[in-house]
Amino acid sequence: MKKIFTLLFALAAFVSNSMAQPGGHNAMKFAGKASFSVMTTTVDVESDTIVYAGSDFTIPSMTYNMSGHEATIPSFTIKETTYEGGYAGVTWQEQDFVTTATDGKAVTGKILSGVFTHNDGIYNVKLKVQFKYGQMPHEITYEIDGYYVKAWTDKLHVLIDRNYTVEQVTYNVRTYLDGETTKVDVEIPTFDMKATTIGDLTSGGYTVKGLVMDETQGGYYRDYHEDGLTMHFKAAGMDADYPLSAADANNILVVFEGKSIKIVNVFKPGAMPFLITTAFPDPTATDIKRREWREERGENDEVVYDLQGRRASHASRLTPYVKIVNGKKYLVK
Question: What 8-state DSSP symbol labels residue 60?
């Protein structure tokens, strides 16, 4: 006999930090590879996101090209689904649904299959849906293999010449299986800061994928300088998209500690002559990471900049110049 549960309670053990609450239920995002088929056309999507809230699934929009014409099927929500199981696992058997897309057109179809599983902190939803949209004569089949995307919101500590604080940022962190290997993707948030050593700055807005456990680093780690990533950086004469390709920077560490997380990101956009290190949410992690970086390169805590905020290797070449020693600035004329 089928039992109808609210998945919110079935998964309460891992949704301690709730996200938005549409309809009074916690909305949980699951992201992963997806595909949808229309007649003989199949579109593979590298990364798609479905949302589960209470007993409702929200399916994302789908865009495809058929006979040279691009078409989009808008997002829609399948409401009041029924399923069986509990915290050990949840399954959706085949069931019909009738709903409305975001453009007001009718959507009719059935959930063909669905399953939620969890294993050592890895939460996975697989879903297969077949439906008709509006007056389209052909059925569409949509499938997704998604992993839970956890939103972590707290302070961010930014080290340039000293520690600055951004009061609130959100990291979206996805933990998933690639074969038998556990990996982590991290969405780096965009943040703004005023009156730093290099002036007002804007930074962030990219995603690092495929962090793996590195025992020597103490967490999930990736050196991403060869990943072809870029970021928009704005500060002190810099205002463009810059590559994150410097070999002595552009690496990230994620450490899970029970129900908390630490994220340390060291980056250097373009040809910027010095590093920026961010720590979320613990500032001591920033100090540790930067100290290790300095020790590896035989540096000390004395740094020299020109008056435009550019780092210089020899103070004698600059008149005047700014010297920073242990986080304190001195103007030398």
Answer: P
What is the token pair recorded at 115?
Answer: 């399953």
Cα(50)–Cα(265) distance, integer angstroms: 28
One DSSP character per residue, 165-222 reads EEEEEEEEEEEEEETTEEEEEEEEPPEEEEEETTEEEEE--EEEEEEEEETTTTEEEE
What gap in Å lies between CA 303 and CA 87, rounded to an integer? 54
Residues 6+ apart with CB under 8 A from 202: 190, 191, 192, 232, 233, 234, 235
The CA radius of gyration of the chain, in Å to the nearest whole number, is 24
Closest CA to 55 of 82, 37, 28: 82
Q: What three-state secondary structure class fits 285? A: helix
218-253 pLDDT, tens digit each: 899 999 999 999 999 998 888 999 999 998 799 999
pTM of the model: 0.78
Q: Comparing C-alpha atoms, which of 93, 19, 29 is closest to residue 57?
A: 29
**C-alpha distances out from residue 207 to 174, 229, 331, Å:** 11, 8, 38
**How distant, in Å, are the alpha carbons of 28, 96, 211, 280, 282 from that of 113?**
19, 11, 31, 39, 42
